[in-house]
Amino acid sequence: MPMKIVFRADASAEIGIGHVMRCLTLADELARLGGVCLFLCRELRGHMAGTIRDRGHKALLLPDTDDLAEDAAFTRQAVEREGGTDWLVTDHYGIARDWEEAVAAVSRRICVIGGPADREHLCDILHDQNYFHDHEAMWRPLVPAAADLLLGPRFALLRPEFLEARKRRGMEGRNRVLVTFGGGDVPNATELALRALALAGFDGGADVAVGGANPHLAALEKVASRMGNVRLHVSPRDMASLMAEADFAICGGGVTLFEGLCIGMPSLVVSIAANQSLAVRLLAEDGYARFAGEARSLTVELLAERIAAFAGADAERRAMAAKGMELVDGRGAARVAERLLGWREAGA
Question: Mutual orientation of helices 160-168 and 255-263 as an angle, nearest 10°?
Fold first, then answer.
């Protein structure tokens, strides 16, 4: 019998698409290795169930509730109707031990794709691909003693095309920049970056990648059309190629940053979420990226200064690209999938 894996993750214009997208990356790898995957998502605007099904996985919509006890009950009932599962994988920053205890009876194992290390979890595997110096010390007191910790960029859940893009990326000289802040970008850091690019006098081309659910899409289309040297890509199918063509990126501190590190694309990072800032600052201190600041505190003028400085720092960007490719090798999804499937092989 193939191993069954249920994912509990949400997407919406407000939440963004990152939780579902990284789970999809893991699900694709698990399916390639023989697993059968089901997604449970709240019925929110932009839930991505269609995208999940297009990738060959089953997706069911749960009633929309902010009450985590109700959410656990809906999840438990859905898994029960499917006959239980070998693994329940959660990627949801509101979930903690109480929720996991409520669903534990319908899953042999639980894997948590971790958010902030500020709550206890009842899990067998804790995955956190962020970059911290004291990673294990942060998480070990919050999980059972026997839990397996999969920590750091070595386990970054990246799609296979980013591993392929490493092979074809050349060095700089294209005079192009990539601007992207994920699928949602509630604070509209994309427009901030575009206006700063114009003020900085950047005379190259810009590729701007946004999600279809971006609440600022109409305004971004107007700004891009006025600038003239901007190509706007809505839900692009080949982000790896856009990255491979860019000298550098202006981006957020989520999965896009790790994708860029993997293929050797230097990044000027604007944090758009509070939980990104610490890890991004550490990456910057260690020479893997440059931190421009938090979107909520940056002005167009200040960001323009930092863009101009980064665009002129050729030697730093070359060193950053090489270091990034060493830190993130693009094989994280395979490592996590093999660990999940390995429980059965080990007789667990």
Answer: 40
The CA–CA distances, whole Å, from 265 to 82, 166, 173, 180, 250 equal 42, 10, 13, 13, 10
Mapping DSSP to helix (H, G, I), strand (E, B) and coil, where does residue 278 land?
helix
Residue 259 structural domain: 160-327
What is the value of pTM for the model shown? 0.90
Secondary structure (3-state) at 150: strand
pLDDT at residue 265 tops 50 = yes
Alpha helices in 33-132, H assignment, sequence order: 49-54, 68-81, 97-103
Which tokens belong to 266?
């230097």
User: For position 36, which CATH number holds?
Assistant: 3.40.50.11190
> Tell me, what CATH number does 182's domain have?
3.40.50.2000
CB 46 within 8 A of CB 21: no
State how many domains the chain has: 2
